[in-house]
Specification:
The chain is of the alpha+beta class. It has one domain (12-137). The protein contains five helices and three strands.
Length: 145
């Protein structure tokens, strides 16, 4: 099966705008973007109110990894479809997937099945600027055994 949104033609700016509106509609306090040195967006960053206070969130889109998947799928005879495996397409696909994921997570939040911290915990930013996931991978956040 081909990667979700692999055929998207939606411009990245439109997707980012949709993400921005979703976050604003769901109470994000501050919304900004982290950029790579080449001017491409690396992550959407925002803050949310939680019972423990305002928390920063960083949602990345890893277009390089998406490009790797697109290239593997293009070579796979079992995957149907005309897969475009360019960096530009990978970036479009990555941000569409982030938007879809965010939309689904916010829908779950609206049902009150989960708390906002449950949704965004891996993406919460520490004082050092790392996400909790990055701190965990780097060994600075340890889980009890």
């Amino acid at each position: 099966m081909a990667l979700k949104n692999y055929t998207t033609e939606v411009l990245i700016n439109k997707t980012i705008s949709e993400i921005h509106l979703m976050l604003a509609d769901h109470g994000a306090r501050k919304i900004m973007f982290d950029y790579f040195s080449d001017g491409k967006i690396q992550a959407v960053c925002f803050s949310i109110d939680t019972p423990s206070g305002e928390r920063g969130i960083k949602l990345p889109a890893n277009a390089e990894r998406v490009l790797e998947v697109l290239r593997r799928q293009k070579e796979n005879p079992r995957v149907r479809g005309n897969i475009i495996d360019t960096a530009e397409q990978a970036e479009r696909v990555a941000w569409r997937i982030v938007k879809d994921w965010l939309s689904s997570q916010l829908a779950i939040l609206e049902t009150e099945m989960v708390e906002i911290e449950q949704l965004f915990l891996p993406y919460m930013v520490t004082r050092s600027g790392q996400t909790l996931y990055e701190a965990y991978c780097g060994g600075t956040l340890m889980l009890p055994e």
